Amino acid sequence: MKEYSKSKLNRVKRGNKRATYDVEKINTILDAGFLGYVSYIYDGKALCLPMGYGRKDNKIYLHGSNANRMLLTLIEAKEMSMTVTHLDGLVLARSGLHHSVNYRSATLFGTVRKVENDTDKEAALVCFMEQMIENRWDEIRPINQKELDRTLVVEMTIETASAKIRDVGVEDEPEDYDLDIWAGIVPIRQIADYPISDKGISENMKIPEHVLEYYVINKS
Amino acid sequence: MKEYSKSKLNRVKRGNKRATYDVEKINTILDAGFLGYVSYIYDGKALCLPMGYGRKDNKIYLHGSNANRMLLTLIEAKEMSMTVTHLDGLVLARSGLHHSVNYRSATLFGTVRKVENDTDKEAALVCFMEQMIENRWDEIRPINQKELDRTLVVEMTIETASAKIRDVGVEDEPEDYDLDIWAGIVPIRQIADYPISDKGISENMKIPEHVLEYYVINKS
Fold first, then answer.
1. Which of A26, A39, A46, A194 has the highest CB neighbour number within 10 Å of its CB?
2. pLDDT at residue A201 in the model
3. How many Å apart are CA B106 and CA B82, to the nearest integer?
4. Distance between CA atoms of residues B137 and A207, nearest Å
5. Of A184, A199, A205, which is closest to B195 when you measure between CB atoms?
6. Cα torsion at A44, A50, A54, A58 (round to 10°)?
7. What does the alpha-carbon distance between residue B40 and residue A34 come to, in Å, rounded to a whole number?
8. Would you call A68 and B35 a contact, using CB atoms and an 8 Å cutoff?
9. pLDDT over threshold 80, residue A111
10. Is the separation of the CB atoms in B15 and B105 below 8 Å?
């Protein structure tokens, strides 16, 4: 599949020249982060919460404790939606209504199942950690059965999705370009600062390669 | 009001030692950004979209075109929820399940009305722009009646809310502190790069004070 098919649910209505249904483009947005906003209905009301996720192919993995209200609600609903957005800049126009932001945003819709098998649960947790920071799982204390037992893992299969990307300059009304008003872009980025060792870490222990690599890739 | 009262809807269930219902603390989280995730129900499904907002006292303002599906749905539902989160760091623990992030996240619940009066609409748009970048509204081309007429402004009154803040170090199992595994925090921040003038801007036009000020406050 190269493109998600358009339906009533995922078709972008406003600003559809910025819309994409391209699977690879949407995966690129998902893989540029690890924090998504998961929507659910509670007591008849829609709400969303930020959640770490891992993506593998067309699957999204979430986890939490066995008592996690949102995850239990998603399993019961058998479906979910998640939105991931990266803010790339302020768009400062000559008129108020042409102010905007540059961004990459993907909204996913899919089916949900609880992951039951321990091997699959661990694989999902590895996927989750790889999404946050690569190459760390093998360097930490292995997960034990007690931990696996008290962890709820949810798998979403992406059934359809859409994304919106704005990555251009200011777009003002034609007659406003002659005005003596400054317009432009203020680029926005998310960066990492130098890692801070935990209080229990001896001064002789070096910061591992995979952590320094994350820092180098993400520093300002 | 100093604290939002706790109800079934806003009471934080998981990790409630990190919860706060303090109005000022929640306002501080809201005022540290301008992009929220607004949840709504469409065709029986919950979804959320990123939206710019302005806050004044206990009111949140959103706007869009008169045909904006989400805003029209919110007006019909007469209620909405919005979540605002700032990511502050990766928490890299000695075991997988103690990995976390440092963050500040607020979730609001409230009633919704369409703003009808032109004066109130413009005031809401000023509030919206001030939230994104201060002191710009008076420097741009004034809004005209045609623009006001085709803009839908929605006002949410915050009825209840909660926030979760994690701003501490690694919290591992007591027996894991002796392991020869590096643990620590990688701080994460959102920064601004130097403003880029629009293609139509003459080289003689200086970047205005309010834009440079935004850059200086937010640069790495």
1. A39
2. 93
3. 8
4. 47
5. A184
6. 40
7. 23
8. no
9. yes
10. no
Mind telling me how many Å the CA of A9 is from chain B's nearest CA? 8
What are the structure tokens assigned to A205, written together? 């222990």
Residues 6+ apart with CB under 8 A from B207: A182, A184, B195, B197
**Per the CB < 8 Å rule, is A190 touching B195?**
no
Buried (b) or exposed (e) across A176-189, using 16+ Cβ within 10 A? beeeebbbbbbebb
- Measured between alpha carbons, how far is A207 from A196 in angstroms, rounded to an integer? 9
Asked if A195's CB is within 8 angstroms of B141's CB, the reply is no
Predicted confidence (pLDDT) per residue in B204-216, tens digit: 999 999 999 999 9
- A164-175: pLDDT as tens digits: 999 999 999 999
Residue B14 pLDDT class (50, 70, 90 cuts): confident
CB A107 within 8 A of CB B45: no
Calculate the CA B90 to chain-centre distance.
Answer: 20
Q: Is there a contact between A182 and B208 (Cβ–Cβ < 8 Å)?
A: yes
